[in-house]
Specification:
By secondary structure, the protein is mostly beta strands. The chain has one domain: Peptidase/esterase 'gauge' domain (Methylamine Dehydrogenase, Chain H). The protein has 3 helices and 27 strands. The protein has a 7-stranded antiparallel β-sheet with strand order 2-3-4-5-6-7-8, with no helix packed on it. Strands 1-27-26-25 form a 4-stranded antiparallel β-sheet, covered by helices on one side. Strand 14 and strand 15 form a beta hairpin.
């Protein structure tokens, strides 16, 4: 398989869900109702910002000793993540309002959630379940298949039509292939021209028009795009031969970063492509790890030096550093990272604005949680 891509201080989202295990808001709604994504929320966010009070809080857990992790959020306010008791496996869950999380029926790490409540989950552990992936839909859990030659599965992204993107590997071949799953069926994406059958290809994200982005794992790293209808191409490398595409939005904008040449190399800056046909431009410096791009508003979130969660925007290089949450069990959080962003009103953010979900990390004593899922509401107000 391809080499693990990471900053020296933090594993990027490109490996933070599936690959790390395998390689080492809308208009106001009530209760748990789920709708479809509406067009751009920019005007709505601006209109509600003045009356939107900033708040940071920990999401509830089922017990006082559970650790938790906030991985992804929809504009409807559903948060996918995991919980775990000390020394136990990670259990995939979803928060639907400010109540204890709902168990999704599998040990795993959610990779993404869409606007109709579907959740793509990477199995957790080093047994057969650790090399499997699942789609939770309408309360039903479905295992996503691999292929005969590559039976192991990893998932990274999901669009609002329920199409999952990731990669397949293992079995009779040593190479990795980018893949998509629609209605529970797997389709391997063909390798681009200039590549070889021995190269590894990783599917990383997909938008609502069926545009998939990913990368080739061999050196030098090259980013690629695929259409679910069969077309494939290569993103411009610009001045760098190590640009890695990590996230794509519904406008076709792509965010990535310049990978290091080794595990000890922190790599270069974050980069962005205006489209899959454009040259990459420098976005944020290498101190910032971008973990998610909102599907239509241009907001990005991540972590600065793995210590502070931040909110940014594709339009400029300014960022808003988000505060750490209150102390837990007598311990202050020593770091926090943001993993996804939503806009508009939802049950978790009734005043609207920009909502960020992530995880805070605490020192702890035996039997107490060492990380907890965090929610920042009206996040722009922290600037």
């Amino acid at each position: 398989m391809g080499q693990l891509i990471a900053r020296s201080w933090s594993v990027r989202r490109i490996t933070a869900t599936a690959a790390i295990a395998l390689l080492g808001a809308c208009t106001a709604s009530s209760g748990g109702d789920v709708g479809v994504r509406t067009p751009s929320r920019a005007s709505q966010v601006t209109a509600t910002q003045a009356a939107c009070p900033a708040q940071v809080r920990l999401l509830p857990t089922r017990t006082a000793t559970e650790s938790s992790w906030g991985a992804a959020i929809s504009d409807n306010g559903w948060v996918a993540g995991w919980v775990a008791e000390p020394e136990m496996k990670l259990r995939a869950v979803v928060w639907r309002g400010n109540t204890p999380p709902l168990d999704l029926g599998v040990d795993g790490v959610p990779a993404d959630i869409n606007e109709v409540g579907d959740i793509a989950i990477q199995g957790h552990g080093y047994g057969p379940n650790g090399f499997s992936a699942f789609l939770w839909k309408d309360g039903t859990l479905r295992r996503l298949p691999g292929t005969k030659s590559r039976p192991r599965v990893a998932v990274n992204g999901l669009n609002d039509h329920g199409v999952v993107v990731g990669f397949v590997f293992g079995g009779r071949t040593s190479s990795v292939r980018a893949a998509v799953w629609r209605n529970g069926r797997v389709r391997v994406l063909r390798h681009p021209s200039g590549g070889t059958r021995r190269d590894d290809y990783f599917g990383q994200d997909i938008n609502n028009s069926g545009l998939v982005i990913g990368w080739r794992g061999s050196d030098p790293r090259i980013s690629h795009w695929w259409r679910t209808g069969g077309r494939v191409g290569t993103l411009s490398r610009g001045d760098s031969d190590r640009g890695v595409a990590a996230n794509v939005d519904d406008r076709g904008r792509v965010v990535g970063f310049v990978a290091g040449r080794s595990e000890d190399d922190p790599g270069g800056p974050n980069i962005k492509w205006r489209s899959v046909r454009s040259d990459p431009k420098k976005f944020l410096n290498r101190r910032f790890g971008v973990f998610a791009l909102h599907p239509d508003s241009g907001y990005v979130v991540g972590s600065r030096d793995s210590r502070r969660a931040f909110l940014g925007h594709l339009s400029d290089a300014r960022v808003t550093l988000l505060p750490n949450p209150p102390a837990l069990g007598g311990f202050d959080a020593y770091s926090a990272q943001a993993f996804d962003v939503a806009t508009g009103q939802n049950p978790l953010a009734p005043d609207g604005g920009v909502t960020v979900v992530g995880t805070a990390f605490f020192d702890s004593v035996e039997g107490s949680p060492n990380n907890r899922a965090v929610l920042w509401t009206c996040a722009r107000s922290y600037r």
